[in-house]
Write a structure and sequence with these properties.
26% helix; globular; disordered C terminus; alpha/beta; three-stranded mixed beta sheet; nine-stranded mixed beta sheet
Length: 219
Amino acid sequence: DPIIFDVGTNVGDWSRLALEANKSSKMFLFDANPDICKLLNAQFGENVEKITNSLLSNDHGEHNFFISNSNSLSGASSMYEHYYLQGKSKKVTVKSTTIDTFCAENNIEKIDYLKADIEGAEVPMLHGATKMLEKQAIDIIQLEYNQTWIRAHCSLKDIFDICEKYKYKLYRIMPNSLMSLDYYHYIVDDFNYQNLLMVSDQTETSVRIVKNAMPPGVY
């Protein structure tokens, strides 16, 4: 019964696939867009543990959230007013909480898999999970990385620092394998779309991971 967090669920495609892969998964869905959460409640109902309409960040408060005018269900909505949202979005106020707080309030001691696709807010989310990361209580974390991180003033260096501090291995998800990212170099910070995988040392020793070793100094 793996516990899975889908942070930035959008219309639920990823969660639906996760449930198909393992019907016993205990899914927790998070999205800051109230229209999205209404849709998720209608589609998933009792098939998931909880659907939460809030930002997962590094604080407890209220934030502006920008929703595309052209498509209120777009996955491009964000807490940051990215260039493609400027003058083309409506602004709503949403509440924020942290992963540490949510887990404490819901008696969650371990997350088996956490996927985050939140348009540049991935690093603040991780900064709100320090207690869980310190205990290596999150086995695997999947992050979307792209140009939205520029507006958020974040980079891959932030992820490398988090991995080093909390003893996680970092990979780039390739079409058929994982590419190991063993150390930071500015060249890897190209802000081109990709998905990253953080794997706890504890999980690394017990789970077989297929990967491509990256030649030293070559990216």
